[in-house]
């Protein structure tokens, strides 16, 4: 794998609340990739009450996965529609099941899959402190990464909200789905030698390793340090 490549098709994986969104934002900033987050795409469909949004809302609220055919259509449409096949992008939250994984690999050749391997006890403990800026998907954590002004987005000043699927029972359902349906996807990528594992508890501890590793695939624009 040559350094100084300009194209990259990457996937970031990790259990719900593992810091995927946070690490993804950092990757996007330092490597200039486009961030495609399935959860953000779905939430925007829900907000604008499209057919996909109304259907997806029921599943999301229960902590269940949205059906594979709906997800595949939504994501492939996004990847192809924007002609991202020849660009630099980072998929976040997709694929989450073996059928999604097969559907994706039938259409697109991936370069690398980053896996944030964060223990479940850490996740359950910190999802309760998570707040988001709904329209941008920006993520805050009251303990690790608080907004500059309490309750307000740093960039727009708009109010932050707690995701209603971040309630304890829903998080438990999401973790359960992750174990059953998404862990097999990790094995699948691992067998194809696409997977890089990043064990750790905190985003700031994992981030420098992700940056170093990704720099072997694509030239970074910069390195931002977080303390
Ligand atoms: P986090 O944001 O902490 O990574 P998460 O990965 O569970 O947590 P999102 O990726 O934002 O959250 O997804 C929210 C919800 O949207 C999921 O619980 C699920 O209902 C639905 N969803 C998102 N991506 C998919 C997918 N690839 N397949 C099926 N459902 C999905
Ligand atoms: Mg997410």
Tell me about this structure.
It is a single chain. With 227 residues, this protein is of the alpha/beta class. It contains eight helices and seven strands; from the N terminus they run βαβαααβαβαββαβα. β5 and β6 form a beta hairpin. It is globular. The structure holds adenosine-5'-triphosphate and magnesium ion. Magnesium ion binds next to α1.
Could you tell me which ligands this complex binds, including any ions or cofactors?
adenosine-5'-triphosphate, magnesium ion
Number of helices: 8
User: What is the tally of beta strands?
Assistant: 7
How much is the radius of gyration in Å? 17 Å
Task: Please describe the biggest sheet, giving its number of strands, its sense, and whether it closes into a barrel.
Answer: 5 strands, parallel
Instruction: Write down the overall mean pLDDT.
Output: 91
Q: Regions with pLDDT < 50 over 5+ consecutive residues? A: none
Q: In which order are the strands of the major sheet placed?
A: 2-3-1-4-7
Q: Given the C-alpha coordinates, what overall shape results?
A: globular
Class computed from helices, strands and strand pairing? alpha/beta
Q: How much helical structure, as a percent, in the residues?
A: 40-55%
SSE order, as H and E? EHEHHHEHEHEEHEH
Distance between the termini: 31 Å
Report the portion of residues in β strands.
5-15%
Topology:
Blueprint: E1 8-13, H1 20-31, E2 34-37, H2 38-47, H3 51-62, H4 68-81, E3 88-92, H5 98-107, E4 112-117, H6 120-127, E5 130-133, E6 138-141, H7 168-191, E7 195-199, H8 203-214
Parallel strand pairs: 1-3, 1-4, 2-3, 4-7
Antiparallel strand pairs: 5-6
Helix pairs in contact: 1-8, 2-3, 4-5
The structure holds adenosine-5'-triphosphate and magnesium ion.
Magnesium ion is lined by residues 20-21, 37, 39, 92-93.
């Amino acid at each position: 794998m040559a350094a100084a490549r300009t194209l990259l098709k990457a996937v970031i994986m990790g259990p719900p609340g593992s810091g995927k969104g946070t690490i993804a934002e950092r990757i996007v900033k330092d490597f200039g990739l486009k961030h495609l987050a399935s959860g953000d795409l779905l939430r925007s469909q829900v907000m604008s009450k499209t057919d996909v949004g109304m259907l997806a809302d029921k599943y999301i609220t229960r902590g269940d996965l949205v059906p594979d055919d709906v997800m595949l259509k939504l994501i492939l449409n996004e990847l192809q529609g924007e002609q991202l096949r020849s660009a630099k992008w980072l998929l976040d939250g997709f694929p989450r099941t073996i059928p999604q994984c097969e559907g994706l690999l039938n259409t697109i050749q991936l370069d690398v899959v980053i896996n944030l391997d964060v223990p479940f006890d850490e996740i359950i403990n910190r999802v309760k402190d998570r707040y988001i800026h709904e329209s941008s998907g920006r993520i805050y954590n009251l303990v690790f990464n608080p907004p500059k002004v309490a309750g307000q987005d740093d960039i727009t000043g708009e109010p932050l909200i707690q995701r209603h699927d971040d309630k304890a029972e829903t998080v438990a359902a999401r973790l359960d789905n992750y174990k059953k349906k998404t862990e097999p996807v990790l094995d699948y990528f691992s067998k194809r030698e696409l997977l890089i594992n990043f064990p750790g508890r905190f985003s700031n501890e994992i981030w420098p390793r992700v940056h170093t590793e990704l720099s072997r695939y694509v030239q970074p624009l910069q390195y931002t340090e977080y303390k």
